[in-house]
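4.2 Preliminary Data

To establish feasibility before requesting continued support, the project team ran the inverse folding procedure on a target of 248 residues. The structure was first converted into the token representation described in Section 3, and no sequence information of any kind was made available to the design step. The complete token record follows.
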């Protein structure tokens, strides 16, 4: 049995930008009874509180949970309350470089987006995220927009040349995440290894974007055992299996 179970958030524990459902909250709480758990996602800290933490039971063993927002560029632990251990923010020069090249790539991609809900580009301090239909787009609108990632690749491919010193990944249903050089989910997993003192062979990573170019894919570079899931329903099945195996 693995000592640490690591999850992606959107598409893995919950639908994009949505809260975990009641069954997932119960399963996640039961998992905390038998294992250490971590979540690494492109979302910022407020998103974790909104999607996960506010839906867990009051007696949840939060000391066994670690949260790594913005693909591992931030790290939160619980000790009577949530505390941030580190934050890898962009310099002003890096921020300007990313925004200039991102805006140019978006324009050249000619995506012909008819409507957006909220801002398309969000500066999360340690990560800049492009959400094609806007940060507040309805899930039903997002689901059918780029299911094969082909539209986002029109932006990502040129960025790999102009921003080759940064990490660029596609996550969720419409987003592209850009983080500091060498900082991605592999970085987050290595920070978990360092801070929690758990060897990578004793970890398991579960995500929906482990394919090449997906924002979960860097996890594979660490050698951690990975499970690709289609959606939160498949994640529930895996959690149930882990709990049963732990108790037997």
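Position-by-position output of the design step:
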């Amino acid at each position: 049995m693995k000592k640490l179970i690591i999850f992606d958030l959107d598409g893995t524990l919950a639908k994009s930008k949505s809260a975990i459902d009641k069954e997932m909250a119960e399963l996640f709480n039961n998992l905390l009874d038998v294992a250490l758990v971590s979540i690494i996602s492109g979302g910022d800290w407020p998103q974790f509180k909104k999607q996960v933490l506010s839906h867990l039971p009051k007696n949840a063993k939060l000391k066994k949970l670690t949260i790594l927002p913005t693909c591992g560029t931030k790290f939160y632990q619980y000790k009577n309350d949530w505390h941030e251990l580190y934050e890898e923010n962009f310099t002003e020069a890096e921020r300007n470089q990313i925004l200039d090249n991102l805006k140019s790539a978006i324009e050249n991609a000619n995506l012909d987006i008819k409507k957006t809900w909220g801002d398309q580009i969000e500066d999360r301090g340690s990560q800049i995220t492009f959400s094609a239909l806007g940060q507040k787009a309805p899930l039903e609108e997002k689901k059918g927009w780029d299911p094969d990632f082909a539209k986002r690749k029109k932006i990502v491919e040129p960025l790999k040349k102009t921003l080759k010193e940064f990490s660029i990944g596609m996550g969720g249903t419409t987003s592209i995440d850009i983080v500091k050089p060498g900082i991605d989910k592999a970085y987050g997993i290595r920070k978990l290894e360092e801070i929690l003192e758990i060897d990578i062979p004793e970890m398991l990573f579960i995500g929906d974007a482990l394919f090449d170019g997906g924002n979960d894919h860097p996890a594979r570079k660490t050698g951690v055992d990975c499970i690709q899931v289609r959606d939160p329903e498949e994640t529930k099945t895996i959690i149930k299996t882990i709990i049963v195996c732990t108790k037997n």
